[in-house]
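Sorry to interrupt, but I need a hand with the structure work. Can you supply me with one protein entry, sequence and fold together? No commentary is needed, just the two lines. Leave the record below and I will have a look.
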Amino acid sequence: MAISRVSICAAFLAFLVFSSFSPVRSEEAGAEVVEESAVLTLDASNFSETVAKYAFIVVEFYAPWCGHCKRLAPEYEKAASILSKHDPPIVLAKVDANDEKNKEFASKYEVSGYPTLKILRNQGNNIQEYKGPREAEGIVEYLKKQVGPASAEIKSSEDAGILIEDKKIVIVGVFPDYSQEEFKNFMTVAEKLRSDYDFGHTLHAKLLPRGDLTVGGPIVRLFKPFDELFVDSQDFHVDALENFIEVASVPKVVTFDKDPSNHPFLIKFFNNPNTKAMFFLNFSGESFDSFKSKYYEVAELYRGKSISFLIGDLDASQTAFQFFGLKEEQAPLIIIQDNDGQKYLKPNVEPDQIATWVKDYLDGSLSPFKKSEPIPEVNDQPVKVVVADSLHDVVSKSGKNVLLEFYAPWCGHCKKLAPILEEVAVSFQSDDDVVIAKMDATANDVPKEFNVQGYPTMYFSSASGKLVQYDGGRTKEDIIDFIQKNRDATTQKDTNVQSEPLKDEL
């Protein structure tokens, strides 16, 4: 299932999130030990009733075939076991969101990718995204903070030292007293954004590091491990305070390298609505400092103007290159992608060309970079090959029912799905009204009506042109059943589609 949030690089962001841990099993004497789960299992029969019992509960929405869900499962189970002993106990639950009877909850909680974790507060009336680690120890520490106060009071230098660390973002409000409207607004924002940031408040600015000790407040100081290290705001309107935090908490240039401390900034970069400018080069190259200096100058020039900047090390950016279909010999290169999915590419750029090229893009004087593989001369396999230049002819103009897979050649899930799609296509070979097709989304531009943010993503276009995203199971039988139910009745014919025993899901 593709992730529907506007995020141009969900595929390799998922890689970043999950690459830091691997699944584990409990084994004894060579046999797997089955233990009672500490994770509550929810479904349509008990979901609402269970959530209503708790002031704080975490729910994982998963799909049985999802590889990332399988990798998370042992870590989530271990964290649930530890947190069940917390005072008070912290409850972790899960629900199979791919099960038809549970899909109403996936819709209600805006679940559009697997796994999705939600923090439900106040009997489910307050819903927040879980944005913490995905290994057991990190889950435990993150959730312990989430059940405490939204903002910690700083009464001593020791308190400040514990809260304000050098490698994380912390927002601290300084107030003359805690009775004013500014403090109430601050606490409102802290409660709303507590899953993203650490908050603190104090009556004494002298307890804080990095700055003017004479500050009396009310003022908000955001501490950060980059750029100017801290920044202040005195606008306590809730919307303004939220915006200040969101803007100030992202580096003017996000770094894409192997340092895991940069991953939260990468996620914010790719999930924000701005146009994305991405510069990839060799960080160990002799010209790196010159390139970096010029790029940072451009980022500073256009800061706050709806374009975000990233600099990526070639050594760490292989997943990004695979996603965009780029080649290492094109580096140093800049690629810009706008909100319509159009890409602009400048390969083998020189330091003095960076500013001019970005300006030309913003002035609208550049043409987008178009990608399409050649239309195959021979296309007689059961699963038909579609390229960007032939996509609309196959999907929109053919008058047929078309199941189209968008895949990446390097994607493990796509490789597992390939033989299943082949079986589906063979089953429909005698039916002229059904086409099973595939397109390499890394080698071809994907039109914006197809929301392809992860691989594989499948769409079904009926003969009359109704377009829906496929989000069912990944067995031959599941896919055939979906096609038969969604194809246009006016074109449906008797087919020789054969049913076979169910196979293991991906």
